[in-house]
């Protein structure tokens, strides 16, 4: 499912116009993004949690040359599925 298909599903499920559903989806993703950019997380009970995790600096290898390189520490976005979502998938 891509973004336009998700908008169609939201519009039909919530009895909204496609424009309203698109604005709602964009507002939701924007709110999650801004919260995670500030280092916070978003928990949706029954669905899952969006969190920011720290990835430590590490040594990597250039696959073309085989040379060893240093990879900087970084923050990465992560999603952990909730119990209800896990059960729905199984």
Molecular structure report:
- This protein has 90 residues and is of the alpha+beta class.
- It is built from three helices and five strands.
- The protein has helices at 3-14, 18-37, 83-89; strands at residues 42-44, 48-55, 58-61, 68-71, 74-81.
- It has a domain at 1-38.
- The strands form two sheets. It has a three-stranded antiparallel sheet.
- β3 (58-61) and β4 form a beta hairpin.
- It starts with a helix and ends with a helix.
- The chain is elongated, with a radius of gyration of 18 Å.
- α1 crosses α2 (18-37).
- The mean pLDDT is 94.
Strand-pairing-aware structural class: alpha+beta
Mean pLDDT comes to 94
The description of the largest β-sheet is: 3 strands, antiparallel
Work out the strand percent.
25-35%
**How many strands in all?**
5
Q: Pick out the low-confidence regions.
A: none
Rg computed from alpha carbons, rounded to a whole number of angstroms: 18 Å
- Straight-line N-to-C gap: 19 Å
The number of helical elements comes to 3
Which series of helices and strands comes N to C?
HHEEEEEH
Q: Percentage of helical residues?
A: 40-55%
Strand order, biggest sheet? 1-2-5
> Outline, from the CA principal axes?
elongated
Strand-helix topology:
Layout: H1 3-14, H2 18-37, E1 42-44, E2 48-55, E3 58-61, E4 68-71, E5 74-81, H3 83-89
Antiparallel strand pairs: 1-2, 2-5, 3-4
List its traits.
90 residues, three-stranded antiparallel beta sheet, 3 helices, 43% helix
């Amino acid at each position: 499912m891509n973004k336009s298909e998700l908008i169609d599903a939201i519009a039909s499920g919530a009895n909204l116009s496609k424009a309203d559903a698109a604005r709602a989806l964009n507002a939701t993703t924007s709110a999650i993004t801004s919260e995670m950019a500030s280092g916070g997380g978003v928990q949706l009970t029954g669905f899952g949690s969006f969190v920011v995790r720290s990835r430590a600096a590490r040594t990597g290898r250039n696959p073309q040359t085989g040379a060893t390189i240093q990879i900087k520490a970084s923050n990465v976005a992560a999603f952990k599925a909730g119990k209800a979502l896990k059960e729905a998938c199984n």
